[in-house]
Amino acid sequence: MKFNREAKVAIIFIAFAIFYLALSSQIDSKNLYASGGVSSKSLPLIYGIVMIIFSIALFITSMLKQKDLHSNDQDKKPVSTVYIFGHQIKRKPLYLALSIILFAFYAFTYTRLGFVLSGFIYLGCMIMLLTPTDKKSKKMLMFGWCFSFVFVLGLYLVFTKFLSMMLPRGILF
Amino acid sequence: MLTMLLQGFGTVIGNPLIILAMLGGVFVGIIFGSLPGLTTVACLSMFLPVTYVMSHEMGLSLLTAIYIGGMSGGLVSAILLNIPGTPSSIATCFDGTPMAKKGQAGRALGIGVFASIIGNFIGVLAMIFISAPLAAFTIKFGPWENFGVTVFALTLISSLCGKNILTGLLSAIAGMMFSTVGLDRIDSSVRFTFGMSELTSGFGLLTVLVGMYAVSEVLRIASADPEKATVNEEFKMKGIGLTLSEVIEQIPNLIRSSIIGLCIGILPGIGGSTANIIAYSVAKSSSKYPEKFGTGIPDGIIASESANNASIGGAMIPLLTLGIPGDGSTALLLGGFMLHGMTPGPLLFQTNGPTVYAIFASMIISTILMGLVMYFCMRWFVKILKVPSFILIPCIIVLCAIGAYTLNYRSFDIWALLFFGIFGLILSNVNVPIAPFILGFILGGDFEVNLRTGLQYASSDRFMLLHRPIAMVFIILAIFFFIYSFKKQRRQ
């Protein structure tokens, strides 16, 4: 059976609500009678139930709109691709995944390597990643890395020296 | 009162150093407000110790100038980057960014600044002339009244839902669910922390906001064609961005939104972050052309910016008259008063009248300075759009990470940014609006706390809510508004 986008959204919300309800039921609630019977788990339970009700309503209404299936098919656009080691890969998921991985790397190294080093690596890699293919040249990439270093170092000095905010020093300072 | 106010103007204008301090405060505030992740609270906390060496008038004028600059600065990144610089400018994105995308970034900024100035003036004038009766009215607000206001604010979500009301409501409930993470504010029960100590204080509003708007936007652009992501903007603007006839047409919107901002600003804990969304929703609902909202019309920018700036005057009323700070910024201002040996409260006007009126005067002058600085710097702000997106976008992430890290000085908040970034991207990809999620997240905590506190008060009286007229008015308004917007949407 084919589901349209809204129906899939409804299913995801139902799954999320069930997960949330399962966790809500495990809350060690206190103060049950002092707050008129509304404890620390009451509202989470209500939110979960309301979400399930609205999700079911969304699922039903979306299934009634059969037109969406056709319009979604027509909306499909050609996806741009890039070549990596001779393999053609869809650009959108690849760049998105790389951006998320780089951000995760940045978060992981933020306190370990320090603000300047982690920021320099992240910024340099992101500029390399996002630079359009027609603008990619040795000069541009060199500029990207130099800019990353100057920008991150400048920010570090402004925030730590002038604004007295503490940023992770890491291994450089 | 007028004599005192004139004396206050004399004190401020008579000392060029105070004007210079205010100019610097407004400028720094705008920078902090416009950078995603950096907040007015952080800026105020940095400059609070600096005021110790200054006179009462100069120190407190500097702090209020930062507050005004910070609140207005948020519109810059909201319009140019679709990333609200502060929680108070969320709704500015809705029409500001589409207008900028049409090649009218200068006009959008001009309208935003104009609305900010008017909103600020209305808020400050209300603070000067009617602060006493307003404070006396709001002191009657207990948990049930605050619950009524929260319920009313939540019903406004229906006008932010876009084409499908159900997806909007689901988004809002998800926001309310995320607001329950951490220690329960009533009885400290541990909820949804998965054993992580970092989650005991819940998710910070700034982390959620920056993650959902800035990081998701960055991820979206990263996955789009970079050739299309670069925007070239020529700066074109005449006057303030609005013609005289447009200004006259917008007067009801300006006044209505400013009053909304003022009233919400007075209520502790709600403030500018909610005021701008509520004012936008009301402007949309009462408009003759609600379908045009979100396409880049001045009405949306004016509603959001006049409301958030009017909330400054509103937030100052309980601070000055009752000594109650409504949010982080006013809490730091309270610290500023105490640092200078003054205790805000009913006796402040008697014991430190001249200083208080000097602060009133400095707020009016700061508003004018804010307008001048913003109009003067607008040409340079718009140049941000000329920076290629492949350089600009990663730089924004680095700035956001600074803002998130300096909240609690822990890398966990940077991970939270990534989480909410991915979550925001998924929501926008499946056409679930983000604004209701944010409003649900902001109001979810207050909704629960006020409901449970109210029920605790009413342990023996099950119908106590019916005996609270102010709360009942808000709840009836909420029901009326929900039915009205539901019917309106069905007609459309």
Tally of helical segments of chain B: 21
Helix content of chain A: 55-70%
What is the CA-based Rg of chain B, rounded? Answer: 22 Å
By DSSP, the count of extended strands of chain B is: 2
Task: Assign an overall shape of chain A.
Answer: flat
The greatest interface between two protein chains, and residues involved on each side, is: A-B, 73 and 63 residues
The biggest sheet of chain B amounts to: 2 strands, antiparallel
Number of strands of chain A: 2
Q: Can you give the mean pLDDT of chain B?
A: 83
Distance between the termini of chain A: 60 Å
Strand order, sheet with most strands of chain B? 1-2
**Total domain count of chain B:** 1
Give unreliable regions of chain A as ranges.
73-78
User: Which structural class best describes the helix and strand composition of chain B?
Assistant: mainly alpha
What number of domains of chain A?
A: 2
Q: Proportion of β residues of chain B?
A: under 5%
| Biggest sheet, spatial arrangement of strands of chain A | 1-2
List keywords for this structure.
heterodimer; A: mainly alpha; 6 helices; B: 492 residues; two-stranded antiparallel ribbon; 21 helices
